[in-house]
Amino acid sequence: MILPIIAYGDPVLRKVSEDIPEDYPDLDKLIHNMRETMYNASGVGLAAPQIGKAIRLFLIDASPFAEDEELSEKDRNVLKTFNKVFINAQIIAEEGEEWVFNEGCLSIPDVREDVSRQPVIKIKYQDENFKKHFETLEGLAARVFQHEYDHIEGILFTDKLSTLKKRIIKKKLENISKGKIAADYRMRFPNLKKGK
């Protein structure tokens, strides 16, 4: 089932998410619905807060980036199969000199900005079977993970922008929260009165 994506301005996007216990009800169904929702919106990642649930769950399918000829062959090969479910994820370490990449977000349609992030991260998480994993991610895989991880920490990519950039996009963000945006996918807006 395709779920509505929560728009900028909703308080759920600012909550630090709760850990998920192994007996979380209907988790398989939720993951399936999130995957359908992500693909329907042409996203490469989707976090549970973006569908209104403040739990530590996100999905990534970065395979569309594997088509980018400007990336190294090594990066393209990693991204081709970077399709995972992350439960109760934690970043253990971030390393390297920050690099800039243009990011967007399904909860903030039509806003794209350059964001600096570190290129190498060490992470731990559980998969959909609650098996524990420890991994090191680099480059674009690390960046997509960091973006989705921020969601479960109550952080949006716009928080990482300079004061000037934030001022420039302020009106756009206000319009998104009021539903004055045309997205190609279902959205739920925080500042729309019920019944309208």
Topology summary:
Blueprint: E1 5-6, H1 27-40, E2 45-47, E3 57-61, H2 73-80, E4 83-95, E5 99-105, E6 108-117, E7 120-126, E8 132-138, H3 139-152, H4 163-177, E9 187-188
Parallel strand pairs: 1-9
Antiparallel strand pairs: 2-3, 3-4, 4-7, 5-6, 7-8
Characterization of the model:
Its cofactor is Fe(2+). GO terms for molecular function: metal ion binding; peptide deformylase activity. It comes from Polaribacter irgensii 23-P. The chain has one domain (about 5-190): Peptide Deformylase, CATH 3.90.45.10. The strands form three sheets. The protein has a five-stranded antiparallel sheet, sandwiched between helices. Helices cover about 25% and strands about 30% of the residues. By secondary structure, the chain is α+β, with helices and mostly antiparallel strands. The radius of gyration is 16 Å and the shape is globular.
Biggest sheet record: 5 strands, antiparallel
Lateral arrangement of strands in the main beta sheet: 2-3-4-7-8
What's the structural domain tally?
1
**Total count of helical runs of at least 4 residues:** 4
Q: Spell out the helices and strands N to C.
A: EHEEHEEEEEHHE
Shape by Cα distribution = globular
Mean pLDDT: 95
CATH superfamily: Peptide deformylase
> What is the strand tally?
9
CATH architecture: Alpha-Beta Complex
Distance between the termini: 23 Å
Protein name: Peptide deformylase
EC number: 3.5.1.88
Cofactor: Fe(2+)
Binding site for Fe cation: 105, 147, 151
